[in-house]
Amino acid sequence: MISLFDLFKIGIGPSSSHTVGPMRAARRFIAHLNPTFPVARLRVTLYGSLAWTASGHATDKAVILGLAGEAPESVNPDAADDIVHQIGIDRRLFVHGHPVAFDPTCDIVLDRETIPPIHPNTLQFEALASDGTVLDTARFCSVGGGFIVPEDATKQASYAQPDMPLDFTSGTELLDRTCQSGLTVAGVVLANESALRPQTEIAAYLDLIIETMMACVERGLVQHGTLPGRIKVRRRAAALHERLMERARLNQRPPHEAMDWVSLFAIAVNEENAAGSRVVTAPTNGAAGVIPAVLRYYRDFCPDASRAGMHDFLLTAAAVGGLFKLNASISGAEVGCQGEVGVASSMAAAGLAAALGATPLQIENAAEIGMEHHLGMTCDPVAGLVQIPCIERNAFGAVKAINAASLAMHGDGAHHVSLDQVIRTMAETGRDMNHRYKETALGGLAVNFPEC
Ligand code: SF4
């Protein structure tokens, strides 16, 4: 089982694999750099998908921040641009207290020719002496959701945690654990997490995730203006919010009112993500709006919603997200958007069903439905920005999640396609997908939408 502490991470936008992961990799390279080496210059090479969408996904900004010692969970999003700007002017940064030359315009190399051998999101760091000798180097793969793995360890990477009392690696095993223990899906996850840390710490982390998600929604609801990037996408959450409030004041309440709010919550979060603000990776940044939107729907629209229900929601969602991470991928560069918005929708469907009191079988069914209707969804961000189609797509992922939970709860849990089968199908579909549809911005909407 992958811990919820790994699946839900606090970071900054716009991308978990292209921003959060590279920032962590850069920071790790610097932290492990021998302070006695006479480093005169640093060089970073981005390969594959990271090179194709570098500035659109803020990978360049992320590696600069990481080299400067910043971490995604603690960097001040409002100060980040100033830090990057200053390093660009000074053409140097400080490593272990010593100035080292670093000119982002030439020391961040975008290698779009070399095909990285292990993973499409690969980056390399080099510390150079004054004569150009390479003193130290490291290569990392950013494998989705902010997870990073040294390239040479990728194949052996294991996400299993030690001594989990009710460990599971498939949907079938998860259901078995609930039968054996008599626990809910959330109860199984909590039992495993409790083997790693005290329950008070787990509850505090769940509360932190909830508060960070809700704060992101609130912030997104009041921001105006345009998002970063050359297509100048106008933020629309604030205007949409005002319209919905006005409609409520006039007591004009269409039957689909709740869906309008769900879409609004998702759009608010993803506009914040696109702006590089503080978000929760859930399970990625591109898909960061789905789970907050459905969680907020549960909180604001479902009778008897409670804080305990929100905890069950997140614990259950983490179980499902972990299965996708373990057995397929949550990286758009590996499997397309089905691995991002599709997985988030599946997680949210399971989480909502759990919070509403579904049985383990119904929860497994909800997760399966949530993914089944995202199979084959490509990743084709216009101009390499996490904006079009990403922002609106989160609204659809959230609405589909609610529908999936509802459909599953109208049944008794019996269904034809299992969660494990749909996870396997998603992985195979992603493998067969042309690379132009996997976060390279070389196909789909990215080439058919006129940018000017
Ligand atoms: S299309 Fe989907 S996977 Fe691709 S960048 Fe947007 S949200 Fe991420």
TrEMBL record:
GO BP annotations listed: amino acid catabolic process; gluconeogenesis
What are the leading ranks of the lineage? Bacteria, Pseudomonadati, Pseudomonadota, Alphaproteobacteria, Acetobacterales
Q: Which residues form the Serine dehydratase beta chain domain?
A: 3-152
- Residues forming the Serine dehydratase-like alpha subunit domain are 181-446
Q: Under which name does UniProt file this protein?
A: L-serine dehydratase
The reply on keyword Metal-binding is: yes
Which terms are listed as keywords in the entry? 4Fe-4S, Gluconeogenesis, Iron, Iron-sulfur, Lyase, Metal-binding
Co-factor requirement: [4Fe-4S] cluster
EC number assigned by the record: 4.3.1.17
Per the record, what are the reactions this protein catalyses?
L-serine = pyruvate + NH4(+)
Entry similarity comment: Belongs to the iron-sulfur dependent L-serine dehydratase family.
Q: Hey, which pathway is this one from?
A: Carbohydrate biosynthesis; gluconeogenesis
Show the Pfam families listed in the entry: SDH_alpha, SDH_beta
Entries under InterPro entries matching the protein:
ASB_dom_sf, Fe-S_L-Ser, Fe-S_L-Ser_mono, Ser_deHydtase-like_asu, Ser_deHydtase_bsu
- A molecular-function term among this protein's GO annotations: metal ion binding
